[in-house]
User: Which sequence fits this backbone?
């Protein structure tokens, strides 16, 4: 389905006028896929999500560390100086003699390997950490899907703004020609001054709307910089050969069932609940005893007097059990906290399931409605075009006035914009529906990109220039 010949002519005129108003140089237009690839590298939201996911992954090795052997070593070296005051009597000679000072170095080392044998709290913390990483993985995948949606929405907003701008520019040109014709008729006495005033008022209002549309197009172009970190001067349109079809399958309940199984937000909430439940088990396990085994090896050398000799080597094998009896209520308080957090995660999962169900049903119906709306908008263009021709004929023969003509023109240009707007709504809602059911992927974006039309790119208009030109014309 495509617009009629007359509407195409209007759009061509609008495009030509827009090209004459732009300062941007002609260059290769960017497609939606190229914008997305740039956003993947530069979008700060996705970048933050990636860093957060990377950080969350470290929870598993941190928790696993409490289940693995712990090896510790220490060493020491000391200089010792002993002073012995007074003297001792030689038993052979009976002569008192001084005791010599004792100065020596002592050094040694000790190494211990400790292996937890039973620690239920550490084990459940480890399983909770693995579930927490799964939650982070699903959340990051959701952020990746959301980037596709954000890029397409920003891209379509530019195309939508362009469609409105082209509509208002074409309407402005048509109303200006109508005003010139009415002025000529008034000059020769064929119409009253009221027709001129009515046409002038409509023209002035059209200029205001065109200026606003011009500014909006520039703003939406700028919004792409937030996602990609770069400015764009041209974007490829989406060809009207893009098929507008109903969702497949056409059973709403099937889409909901798929969403409840595959939606990434639901999967993330499920992993969060699992992590909270295992964390609860860990906190409750704080009442259980822990068992460790250890091997300690030590080596000690001394230069002083020692009845064991100057070198001592010791190997110790030990098993220890620790039974927590009372810790001031800490374990019970942590268990109650974990239970409340698990209940919170359970409610959050329920909220996600209800929200996804609602969104899936709403988006399914929105897409189905968009399909009907696009077809209806196309028929509306044809009917308003025929109505405009009839009103123009009536004006020529004196049965209709200039207000009727101007209103009929406005309805035609509004219908042309509504047709383009409904197509862009359909494209966006299709992606939102796929995201709701968790199946949105880059292949969907590539499929949309295959309908890029580089032959008629959208060029960014310098709104400051056009506004200054309008002000200059008004002053003259």
Assistant:
């Amino acid at each position: 389905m495509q617009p009629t010949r007359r509407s195409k002519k209007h759009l061509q005129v609008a495009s030509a006028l827009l090209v004459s108003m732009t300062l941007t140089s002609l260059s290769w237009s960017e497609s939606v896929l190229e914008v997305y690839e740039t956003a993947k590298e530069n979008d700060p939201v996705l970048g933050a999500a990636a860093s957060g996911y990377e950080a969350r992954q470290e929870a598993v090795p941190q928790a696993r560390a409490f289940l693995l052997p712990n090896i510790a070593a220490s060493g020491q070296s000391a200089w010792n100086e002993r002073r012995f005051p007074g003297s001792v009597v030689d038993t052979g000679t009976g002569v008192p003699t001084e005791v010599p000072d004792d100065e020596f170095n002592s050094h040694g080392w000790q190494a211990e390997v400790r292996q937890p044998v039973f620690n239920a709290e550490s084990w459940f913390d480890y399983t909770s950490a693995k579930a927490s990483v799964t939650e982070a993985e699903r959340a990051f995948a959701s952020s990746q899907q959301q980037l596709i949606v954000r890029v397409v929405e920003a891209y379509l907003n530019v195309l939508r703004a362009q469609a409105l701008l082209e509509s208002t520019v074409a309407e402005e040109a048509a109303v200006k020609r109508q005003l010139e014709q009415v002025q000529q008729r008034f000059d020769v006495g064929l119409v009253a001054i009221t027709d001129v005033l009515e046409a002038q008022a409509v023209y002035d209002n059209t200029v205001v709307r065109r200026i606003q549309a011009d500014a909006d197009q520039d703003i939406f172009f700028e919004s792409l910089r937030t996602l990609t970190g770069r400015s764009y001067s041209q974007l490829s349109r989406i060809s009207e050969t893009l098929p507008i079809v109903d969702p497949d399958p056409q059973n709403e309940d099937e889409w909901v069932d798929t969403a409840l199984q595959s939606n990434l937000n639901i999967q993330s909430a499920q992993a969060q609940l699992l992590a909270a439940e295992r964390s609860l088990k860990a906190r409750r396990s704080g009442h259980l005893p822990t068992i460790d085994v250890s091997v300690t090896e030590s080596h000690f050398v001394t230069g002083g007097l020692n009845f064991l000799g100057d070198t001592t080597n010791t190997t110790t094998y030990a098993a220890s059990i620790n039974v927590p009896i009372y810790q001031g209520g800490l374990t019970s308080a942590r268990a109650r906290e974990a239970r409340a957090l698990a209940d919170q995660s359970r409610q959050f999962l329920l909220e996600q399931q209800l929200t996804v169900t609602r969104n899936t049903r709403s988006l399914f119906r929105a897409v189905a409605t968009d399909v009907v709306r696009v077809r209806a908008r196309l028929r509306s263009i044809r009917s308003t075009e025929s109505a405009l021709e009839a009103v123009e004929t009536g004006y020529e023969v004196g049965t209709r006035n200039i207000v009727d003509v101007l209103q009929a023109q406005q309805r035609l240009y509004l219908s042309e914009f509504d047709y383009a707007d409904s197509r862009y709504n359909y494209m966006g809602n299709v992606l939102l529906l796929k995201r709701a059911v968790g199946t949105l992927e880059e292949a969907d974006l590539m499929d949309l990109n295959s309908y890029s039309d580089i032959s008629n790119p959208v060029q960014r208009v310098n709104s400051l220039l056009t506004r200054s030109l309008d002000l200059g014309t008004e002053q003259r």
